[in-house]
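User: Show me an example of a complex going from sequences to C-alpha cells.

Assistant: Sure. Here are the input components:
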Amino acid sequence: MSKKTNDNKYWVGVDLGGTKMLVTLLDQSFQPCGRKRKKTRGQRGKEAGLSRMIDSIGETLEDGGVAPDQIAGIGVGCPGPLDLDSGIVLDMPNLGWKNTPVRERLEKAFGCPAVVMNDVDAGVYGEYRFGAARDVRCAIGVFPGTGIGGGCVYEGRVLRGKTGSCMEIGHVPVDPQGALCGCGQQGCLEAMASRLAISSAAVAAAYRGEAPNLLAAAGTDLSNIRSGALAASVKAGDKVVERILRDAARLIGWTCAGVVNMLAPDCLVLGGGLVEALPDLFREEVDRSVRARVMPAYRDAFEVVVAKLGDDATAVGAAAWAEHSQK
Amino acid sequence: MSKKTNDNKYWVGVDLGGTKMLVTLLDQSFQPCGRKRKKTRGQRGKEAGLSRMIDSIGETLEDGGVAPDQIAGIGVGCPGPLDLDSGIVLDMPNLGWKNTPVRERLEKAFGCPAVVMNDVDAGVYGEYRFGAARDVRCAIGVFPGTGIGGGCVYEGRVLRGKTGSCMEIGHVPVDPQGALCGCGQQGCLEAMASRLAISSAAVAAAYRGEAPNLLAAAGTDLSNIRSGALAASVKAGDKVVERILRDAARLIGWTCAGVVNMLAPDCLVLGGGLVEALPDLFREEVDRSVRARVMPAYRDAFEVVVAKLGDDATAVGAAAWAEHSQK
Amino acid sequence: MSKKTNDNKYWVGVDLGGTKMLVTLLDQSFQPCGRKRKKTRGQRGKEAGLSRMIDSIGETLEDGGVAPDQIAGIGVGCPGPLDLDSGIVLDMPNLGWKNTPVRERLEKAFGCPAVVMNDVDAGVYGEYRFGAARDVRCAIGVFPGTGIGGGCVYEGRVLRGKTGSCMEIGHVPVDPQGALCGCGQQGCLEAMASRLAISSAAVAAAYRGEAPNLLAAAGTDLSNIRSGALAASVKAGDKVVERILRDAARLIGWTCAGVVNMLAPDCLVLGGGLVEALPDLFREEVDRSVRARVMPAYRDAFEVVVAKLGDDATAVGAAAWAEHSQK
Amino acid sequence: MSKKTNDNKYWVGVDLGGTKMLVTLLDQSFQPCGRKRKKTRGQRGKEAGLSRMIDSIGETLEDGGVAPDQIAGIGVGCPGPLDLDSGIVLDMPNLGWKNTPVRERLEKAFGCPAVVMNDVDAGVYGEYRFGAARDVRCAIGVFPGTGIGGGCVYEGRVLRGKTGSCMEIGHVPVDPQGALCGCGQQGCLEAMASRLAISSAAVAAAYRGEAPNLLAAAGTDLSNIRSGALAASVKAGDKVVERILRDAARLIGWTCAGVVNMLAPDCLVLGGGLVEALPDLFREEVDRSVRARVMPAYRDAFEVVVAKLGDDATAVGAAAWAEHSQK
C-alpha cells in the first residue's frame, strides 16, 4: 500500500454485487490503500442497502485516515441495468433495488462527483488503465461466470449503449440448436460456455461416472461445482471435465473471432473467477481458436491475455472511470 | 392375470438392469402371470449375479405353480454390449460382468432355449407384438433416459449388427457445437435431449432462479432431477422447464425425421420413464417436429405413438423374441 | 463377353433414366453379354416410351442371338417414386409417365417375370452381388449426384418402405441453417454435399477468381460444372475446388456416422459419377470423417469402398434382384 | 442541383471500385452538383489509374465551373485494405495497385486535404450524415453484395481498426458446417447470405427446374444472376428464389442480433444493389429476425432501415468524412 499525505487526492471504487460489496480506497496513482468487503444484506431493502454502501465507504475512509473532502470522485460498478447518464440503477433484484439513484445519493453523501457503470465494463477499464491491456487502442474483455460478461474500451472510452452498457458478448447467438439461455433465447454463447454451462455439463459427467474426482469432491449438486471445484477436478485428472472446459473455451474463441473481425481489437482480456482458476487452459484454447477462425488479415493483429487485477478490477476500474469522466 | 393349466406352455422374460432385475412369467398368449423384482446387488460379482438371476426365475416359477419343464423359452433384455449369437454379455460394469455366458447358464439351469438381447430392442419388440406398434411393417422405438436408446422391428425381425444390437439413434450426430456425449463424441442426440441432458439444463435453470418449483422440490442436485421431478415441475408451472423439455423433444423429432427418411417406418414409438411421465408433451412435440422436417412424401406415412407396456415391455419383448427365435 | 449356348438362361437389366436408358443382357452368371444405350425421347409420351424400352430390349436380345423364351427375368431400375409390389412407376416427369405399369407391360411383352425398383437400390444391390460390397451382411450405398441417393442391402435383401424404396440418406437433416433442398426442406445432406451443391459452390469460387482453372475450362455456367470439370479443376491445381469437395465428402462422412451408428453396416459403398471421377479423394475423406465421428465401438467395424461396376451397376443389380425375387 | 457562387466551398467525393469510379462534386451543404462515372481501366497499371482518377476529378470541376482552390477537401472510398492514417491503398488487385499513396497524390494535385477510407464505411457515414440514419448515436450498416460489407458510425465517428477499417460483419462465423468463404474460412455470414451466395443457390434451383422464370430469363450462368435478375424472378413468381432470399435475409438478421447485443445501435442500415432491388423483402425479414433473436431488453431499442442515398452514398460519405476530419 502506498503512503498517504494530506495533500493527496483519493478515489473510491465500489464493486457492488448481488450478495457482496467491495469498497476500495485508491490514492492519486490508483494504488489501493484501503479495502472493505461486506455482505449486501439485500433482503433489508433499498434504503438499508444505500445506507450500508455509504457507511462502508465512510468506514473505509476512516480506516485509511482520509477525510471526505480528500475524495476526488467515486465510481461504482454493478451488474444490473443502468441509466448511465443519471447514475440510476434500474433493477437489482437481489438488493430489492428499482430505479435507485445511486449516483445522486453518493454525491450528496460525500460531496464529490460519482459515476455508476456496468461492473464488467469497469473491470475491463481497470485492465485497460492498470492491468493486462494497458493503454491499448482497443481492448475487449470477456468474463465467463454465471453468464459471460463483455466490455470494450475503444480509444480510451468505454463503449456504451444509448442509456446503459453494451457489449453483451454472452448473448451473441452461436448455435440455433443450442441450450436455453437465461435471457430467454436459445444458443447464446453464455448458455453454452459460461461457468454455469460448464458446471452443468460437468455435473452430468460426474453423474455418468466419467468425472470421478469431481464426483468424490463435490457430488452432483450444481451449487457445489464452482470454479475451484472445476480446477481441482482438472488437476486431479478428470479428463472429461478438462475437455468440457476446453470445448467451452473454444466456443468462446469461435465467437470472439467474429468480434475481432468487427472491432479489430489489439487485445482480448479474459477474466473472472473461472479464468483465474485455470488461466493457462483458457488463454491457450481461446488464443488458438480465435486465431484459427479470424480473418487471415487479423491473425497476428491482437493478443489474448488474462486479467491481472483479480478481485480489485471492478472497483479500481470504476474509480478510474470516475476520474476519466471529470476530464 | 390369465388362468393356468398344466398343458399350457410358459415363457420367461427378464429385464436385467444395472441396479434392478425384473423377472416376468408369461402364459402362452404372453399375458403376464407372475412377476418378481429384485436388486441386482452387482457388487457381489459375476457368479453371485448369475445365481441371483437364476434363483429369481426359479422363485417366480414356484410362486406361479409352474414347473421348469413347462417353460418354452427364456428371453433376457439387458443394456450392455452383447454377442447376440452366443448370448454372451460382453460388459456390464455395474454387475462386474465381462464375457458372461448368460444364455448358456440359463439353458443349463432350465433346460430350455434362451436368448439374450438389447433391452431397448426387447422393449420395441414387445410394443410391436403386444403394444403400441402392433404388427406394423416397420416400427422404430426411441426411449430417452440416461441416454437415448433406439430399436427397429423391420418386417417382423429386430434389426441387428454383425454381433450385437444396432439402432443407436442416441448417437446420431446432430450438432457439431453440441454437448459432450458419454460415448466420447460431441453433439450426439443423447448429449442434447436425453433425460440426463434435460435434467442438467433444468438444474441450471433452477440455479438461475428460473424454475422455482423445481428448485423448491428438488434443489440443485442433479441426482434428484428425475422424470417425476421434471413432470411435477412442469405441472406446477415452471415454464422454463417445460420449454427445455419441448426443445429436447423437438430435437428428437428433428433427428427422427432423418430416420424416417431412411427407414420409412409406419410407426415411431416413444417410451421410457420420462415419456411415460409426460406422454402428451413428448407425443405432440415429436409428432409436430418430425412431420415438419420429414420429406413431403413421408409426411402422412407414419404414426407417432407412446409405448403402452410400461415396465413390462423389455421382459415381455425378450420372451416374445425367444419364441420368435424358435420358429 | 461370355459364350452363349441355347440351354443357357439369360437375364435383362434396364437402367431407365430421365434422358437415357441402358439395356444390358446378362448370362446365367450375370456377366454382361450385350448392351444398348438409347435416349429416352421422353417428350413423345408414355406409350412411345414404353414401346421404346420394349423395342430396345428386343434389339438387345436379337443382337445377342438370344430368344425371348431364354430370358429368365427382367429387372428395371429407375429414379421415380414407385409402387414396388405392382411394378408401377408413379411419376417420371421427364418421360411424361404417371402410374405407368412397367412391370405388367414387360411381362406381357416377354413372357417372363419382371421387377421394377429404385435405381440406387439396384446399384447397391449390384455392388452387393458382384462388386465392391460382395456378400456382406449389411451394405449401405451413398451416391452423390444431382441429389444424393442411398440404398441398403441387409442380410441379402434390399431395405424398402411400405410401397416404395427408402434410405433417402440425401434427405437426412444435417444443418438447421443450411441450404434449401430440392425437397423443400432446409439443410438436407444433399443440399450441402451433392454434386450439384459442390458445383454451385465451385462456380461461386470461379466467379470470385479463386478457381482459375475451372473458370478457364468451364466458365461460370453451372450447367458446365459436371464431374469431369470438377476433377480436371482439382488436377489442374484449383485448391479451393479441392477444399469444397473435401468439405462435402466430410459432411457425407459426418452423416454416415449416424447411419453407421444405427444400421451397423459392414460396408459403405460410395458411387456415382463424381465419386468415380475422384475416387481417392472421396474414399479418403469419407473414411476419415465417418471413422472420426462414429461411436468408438464401431470405429473398426466397417469398410468404406468405392463402387466397382460403374455404369453397369443399376442394370446388373436390377437383373440380379429379378433373380432374387424368384426364389 | 443547388446553385453555386464563387464564395462557396466545394467538396469532392470519389467512389473508387475495381471496374468503375464515380466522382461527385458537392456544394457546401453536400448537395451533389456534378458527377462523372468512368471505367477504371485497371489493366493499364498504377500510374495510369492515378492519373485517370485525378483527370476525372479535374473534368468534374471544370464541368461544374469550380476552380481547384474552391475545393475544401476530397474523400475517396475504396474496397481494398488501407492505411487510413497515411491514405495509402495497400492492395487493389483489379487496379494493379500495391501501396499506392492516393491521399498524397490527390493533395499534391489539388492542393487541399484528402482522406481515403473504406467504401462501405463511407456509405454508412453518408447515410448517417444525410440519409437513412441521420444523426443517430450509433448506426451500423450492412451491405450484401459479392461479399457483405459492414460499417459503424459511433457517436459521430467511424469505428476503425489500428491501421485500417473494421466491422467485417460479413466474416462473423455463423455456421461451423457452412459454405467456404472467400476469406478462406468456413461458414462466414457472407459465404451464406451475400448476393453471390444467394445467386449461387438460385442458379442451383434454376438448374433443378425450380425457378422457371429465372431459368428462362438468365439461364444457369452465375454471372447473369445479378440483383436485377433475382428481383425479376421473385416478381415473376419464382417462390423458391424468394425463399432463398428470405432465408439469407433471416441469417443476416440472426447475425445482426449478436451485433445489436454488442453495440446497441439505434439503427441498422441495409444497403447495396440487392437491398435496393428488393427493399421491402430485406427490411421485413431482417427486422423480424433480428428482433426475434435479440436480447429482450433491446427488442424495441433500434430501427431497421434501408439506405436512401443509392449510388451516391460512398462518394458523399467520403466527402463528408473529409470535412469531419478537418474539425
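The lines above are the inputs; the final block is the predicted structure for all four components together. The CA atoms of residues 104 and 285 of chain D lie 44 Å apart.
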